[in-house]
Amino acid sequence: MKMHSRLKTLLAAMLAVMMLASCNTTGSGGGTSATPAPSAAESTGDAQSESGAPTAEATSTGGKILKVNNQSEPGYLHPGMATGTHDSWAIDHMFEGLWRKDPEGGAPILGMAIDVQTSEDGLVWTWKINPDAKWSNGDPVTAHDFVAAWQYAVNPDNAARYGTQMYIFVNGKEIHNGEKDVSELGVKAIDDTTLEATLVNPMGYLSDYMTHYTFYPINAANAEAHPDWSLSGDNYVSNGAFTLTEWRNKESLTLTKNQNYLRANEVKLDGIYFTIIEDITTTWQKFQQGELDVLYPLPPAVIEQLRNENSPLLYQFPDLSTYYYYLNTEVVPLNNVKVRKALAMSIDRTAIADNVMKGGEVPAFGLTPPGISDGNGDYQANLGDLFHEDIEEAKALLAEGLAEEGMTLEDFSFTILYNTHDTHKKVAEAIQAMWKQNLSVNVEMTNAEFQVVLDRRKAGDFDVCRAGWIGDYSDPMTFLELFTSWSDYNDGRWYNDRYDELILSATKTTDNDVRMKAFKEAETILMEEIGVMPIYFYTKNWAIQEKVTGYYTPVNRFVQLQFADIAE
Amino acid sequence: MLAAALKKEGKNALAKYILKRLGYAILTIWVVVTLTFIIMKVIPGNPFISDKMTKTTLENLMRFYKLDQPLFIQYLEYLKSVVTFNFGPSMVSATLDANFYITRGLPVSMQLGVQALLTALIFGMLLGVVAALNHNRWPDYISIIIAILGVSVPSFIMSRILTSFFSLKLGWFPVSGWASMKSTVLPMIALAVLPMAQITRLTRSSMLEVMGMDYIKTARAKGISRIALILRHGVKNASLPIISSLGTITTNLVTGSIVIERIFAIPGMGESLVKSVGNRDYPVIMAATVVYSIILIALTLAIDLIYPFIDPRIKIVGGETVLAEE
């Protein structure tokens, strides 16, 4: 008896000790150790408490800190290694390239460069680096910093996911394949302030192309002294509006104003504080509590609600992306043009945008979204809709097409493949219903995990498959080159010689009018044959507190906050 | 009496038993690691797949992370990483290695789990005892209703309800994060609800059974106070089935914490495991699987060892736990 009660006490004591000992709440200590202390990540529903305010280090520079959320932990904060918006949104605020996007209007304007010259054939470019440009540690920004950054990105040993951006330079592709040495990349520093690069093809849109984060410079001397500089705030050096002062893994990023930034006098904020929270309902609750100033993405129901209320908190803008279905041209009868056209013409895109997506999406009757200039206005607006919806015509086309393939309507059945996601499911269900109703075809649906779907798409193991593309830069090439015969992304395997010819010709000339004409002809062919079935152009829906001003959104970028301000 | 029995053949038997169990544990972990490796390699996909991946970039990445080596070599590397407990770099991040998820995530998840377990045990047993002692009267009915609600309401709904009320409306607790003890309260409650309900029902039925036993009547006849009766004779014996179901309950806690961790943005191990599978982040998958296996095996072993101390009818003989002849 006595032993049992002693044992019970012992067990209870052990549990209590275990609990106290493992009392690990995130503290202000270093990134990976967890010590009990209140951290800046705390936010309460109690409006009177001052939590949600940043740590002492950030506030020592002043109080104007913008609070935003990075939806997932960055994999890399090195511009050469960044893979997507969870890396690049923060990076965009810490670095600036030779060109940058104009806060007024979004066109590419000079950034770190004060002058740029091109050779006659458009292949050799020379930049003069602004002698006043400095890194956050006071070092001057030099041409060597750009060379170092670009060599790093293309070096196959670094396995940078966007190393392919460097293919525009001579030897870029060969270096990436391991055929040539990194030092042979077609870029060199003539002197500290002069940078020269030789392109493989002339690129009139180079200024826009090179605003991409892979082309940001890195401080070469710092990178050599501290190879791990980009992994924490300790040795992080950047040349943009902010620099990284603290990275608490999977919790937060603290960006502090870079006093040495070339345009530091235009930067009103003292810092930006990124929490890292994945759940969009949780982040919406924090936004409602005032713990976040800028928020993306929003739960679909919230977008709908804000739109219906005409809420000033909702900031909607076009995204440079298209949502489409691949139709596998190697599967009978999808190889038949008339069949594909029938499928494309018999769905109601407006209904999908308004009733399924409800985020202000725009029905797409072409591949390239609005937002790209053709020298004479908007490319997409000038091109216009390249096909239209017409159920009767679609029915007729389908009958003809099937007959050509020796099939009847009863023989025709196929499956829509999409990656598991609520939105894709709803869209697929709507399209399935529309095809069944309008064409009387037998359509099934199946979904799988994203990786599995990508695998199948690449292998051609599908009938109809959901996909999309985000434009990398502001030129139709970023979309139209997807459907060339040499593209890695032509999963529907649609090939057309004239299309190839046109796209190739656009890479060889600097005459913008000639290029745009080629693009328009090519895209017309693509839509005449429905080499891909576009559905809608994406929009982005953000929530921004009314007191935040001075933000701007260049096409295909997240909201930029370098020059933002918080009204008191 | 058990102590005496142990002293004679006990110490030997106990040692033999523990050794045998450790042997099985190592074997189990080896099987788990091998199966995980096979499954990881068989399912389609890889850590680097994305809409914008090109063939050359993929080759560079596979080479960088040594995924282009023959499968058998990769298998041996994994075994080595398990034995040295150093699982290598995460394949989707420059800063994090697989061990980070353990060193940072495990204490957090364990704290959450232990707090939830204690909450569930204390309140569950309390409710269960109250219910049993007031059999078929209103406290009993209320306990049953609470138990049924607890089992039926999914944890993510419970989380939202708790947050809406206690965070947004009343402002007592944070919406998310793991910054202070206050942050742990809502997730702890959300996670404890299901096991608490299970423990309530178990305690209630077990208590009812025990209170009807002869030795209870004997003890009461002997004049033992009501409190001593309930605690020393009733609860102690009624807790046996709870201890044996602790294994299942803890497993539920471990898997349930995945959802809770995500909703409350808690940097624990649960959500890392799920994400790493989706990312095909092999080192992290391996690390998480091994750690969870060790936890569950250790737990089962601990429970089996505690049992003879709590239930005098069971003792360890010849490397087995046996029910002694009465």
Please provide a written account of the structure.
The complex is a heterodimer of chains A (568) and B (326). With 568 residues, chain A is of the alpha+beta class. Chain A has 18 helices and 20 strands. Chain A has helices at residues 2-21, 56-59, 85-92, 143-154, 172-176, 206-209, 220-225, 280-288, 300-308, 337-345, 349-357, 379-383, 391-404, 422-439, 450-459, 477-480, 497-508, 512-528, and strands at 43-44, 65-69, 99-101, 108-110, 113-118, 124-129, 187-191, 194-198, 242-248, 252-257, 271-275, 294-295, 314-327, 362-363, 413-419, 442-448, 464-470, 533-544, 548-549, 565-566. In chain A, helix 10 (337-345) runs antiparallel to helix 13 and helix 17 packs antiparallel against helix 18. By secondary structure, chain B is mainly alpha-helical. In chain B, 76% of the residues lie in helices and 3% in strands. Chain B has a two-stranded antiparallel ribbon. Chain B starts with a helix and ends with a strand. The mean pLDDT of chain B is 84. At the A-B interface, helix 1, strand 1, helix 8, helix 15 and strand 17 of A face helix 2, helix 4, helix 6, strand 1 and helix 7 of B.
